[in-house]
Amino acid sequence: MNRSTAVLSAALGLGLAAAMTAVPASAATTAQPAASAKSTASSRAAYVGSAREQADTKAFFEAVMKSAKAKQAASPGLRTVTVTYDPSQAPSFQNEIANAAQIWNSSVRNVQLRAGGNADFNYYEGNDSRGSYASTDGHGRGYVFLDYQQNQEYDSTRVTAHETGHVLGLPDHYSGPCSELMSGGGPGPSCTNPYPNAAERSRVNQLWANGLKSLDRDVFTKVR
């Protein structure tokens, strides 16, 4: 959860789902954590703000939107863009992923999330010192990674909904209150709110109504 505004260093292709091979290394050998596991200091730091990989959120959003818009072009009568995700590589978080999708689907009107094949992005799970994050390799492929240990300390549905917010175009704003979903771990582990606030809902609707041209107006800024 450590991306805000930054200039992209690589162009992104349309085929996000094609050759979806950008698998986080820790996801290759994952093991179910003990119920008592706590997040590490580094994973907690990742959830409350780090300067690493600042371009990933914007790059991932651009790739997902290009992929989803390309599919929509085949059905021009559709007024709502559908973003398809594959949760099969994160079996421990099936409920959280489904809940996060439902939360966003009930919160915004211009984009909807659906599980299915030919996915625009994947979810993975495992252990990673960076905690949970949304990432792209800069070549039109991306995923949401859900860290076991971090999800033991922070509310897992909030973590998942927050990371999914990156897919829909929202940057982090860790100084925000608990009522702001993209404040992430800023308010501390006691914050369990998994819902975007009015400003966040409006921003997502704006982004998906206007398409990638909205990025030219620098709307990809911190939500206040």
UniProtKB/TrEMBL annotation:
Its EC number is 3.4.24.77. The keyword Membrane does not apply. Zn(2+) binds at H162, H166, D172. Keywords: Calcium, Disulfide bond, Hydrolase, Metal-binding, Metalloprotease, Protease, Secreted, Signal, Zinc. One of its GO terms (cellular component) is extracellular region. It catalyses: Hydrolyzes proteins with a preference for Tyr or Phe in the P1' position. Has no action on amino-acid p-nitroanilides. Ca(2+) binds at D155, T157. GO terms for biological process: proteolysis. SUPFAM superfamilies: Metalloproteases ('zincins'), catalytic domain. Its cofactor is Ca(2+); Zn(2+). The active site is at E163. Coiled coil: none annotated. It is found in: Secreted. InterPro entries: MetalloPept_cat_dom_sf (IPR024079), Peptidase_M7 (IPR000013). It is an enzyme of class 3 (hydrolase). Residues 1-27 form the signal peptide. GO terms for molecular function: metalloendopeptidase activity; zinc ion binding. Binds 1 Ca(2+) ion per subunit. Binds 1 zinc ion per subunit. Disulfide bonds join C178-C191. The keyword Nucleotide-binding does not apply. Belongs to the peptidase M7 family. NCBIfam families: snapalysin. This is Extracellular small neutral protease. It comes from Streptomyces morookaense (Streptoverticillium morookaense). The gene is snpA.
